[in-house]
Amino acid sequence: MKILIDADACPVVSIVEEIARQYQVPLLLICDTSHIINTEYGELIIVDKGADSADFVLINKAQKKDIIVTQDYGVAAMALGKGAYAIHQSGKWYTEKNIDQMLFERHMSKKARRSSGRFHGKGPRKRTGEDDLQFRNSFQKLIEKVLGEMKGENFD
């Protein structure tokens, strides 16, 4: 098991790094050349700038039982398809039960934006300490679930 972060503009890198170190789980941070990231624990992989270049490297490196941290629903769907786990920076776990609906909603939103020709949103709200705490708790539960499964325990 290892943790892979889609690190382009990811606000939870330091939290993931801290918890990965605590549990002694290998960590890979993948970003393109337009982002500057430092890590004291993980391995940093920098790829050429380009549409989805970091996403493709991340998915190619992902394996069964790995944990993927991403806000990209498409990356999450591919990770789940490989038998990996995926978590959003909000702390929401992507699952086989919710990913299809999330992808459908993303598609419909994109379609609506494209047809109107105007941007109607305000963008994401500012991240709070409560958001970080929610992510931290959810991420720690996910690590403990995966480690438990690897030891033969069942947390379902």
Question: Which helices and strands occur, and which strands form pairs?
Answer:
Blueprint: E1 3-6, H1 13-23, E2 27-32, E3 43-47, H2 53-61, E4 67-69, H3 73-81, E5 85-87, E6 93-94, H4 99-116, H5 129-150
Parallel strand pairs: 1-2, 1-4, 2-3, 4-5
Antiparallel strand pairs: 5-6
For this entry, give a set of tags.
156 residues, alpha/beta, 6 strands, 44% helix, 15% strand
Structural features, described:
The chain is of the alpha/beta class and 156 residues long. It has one domain (3-115, 125-150): 3-Layer(aba) Sandwich (Rossmann fold), CATH 3.40.50. It has helices at residues 13-23, 53-61, 73-81, 99-116, 129-150; strands at 3-6, 27-32, 43-47, 67-69, 85-87, 93-94. A six-stranded mixed β-sheet has the order 3-2-1-4-5-6, with helices on both faces. Strand 4, helix 3 (73-81) and strand 5 (85-87) form a beta-alpha-beta unit. Helix 1 (13-23) packs parallel to helix 5 (129-150) and helix 3 runs antiparallel to helix 4 (99-116). The chain is globular, with a radius of gyration of 16 Å. The two termini are 19 Å apart.
End-to-end C-alpha gap: 19 Å
Q: Which structural class best describes the helix and strand composition?
A: alpha/beta
Helix content: 40-55%
Examine the secondary-structure arrangement and name the CATH architecture: 3-Layer(aba) Sandwich
Order of adjacent strands in the largest pleated sheet: 3-2-1-4-5-6
Number of domains: 1
* Rounded Rg: 16 Å
CATH class: Alpha Beta
Beta strands, count: 6
CATH topological fold name: Rossmann fold
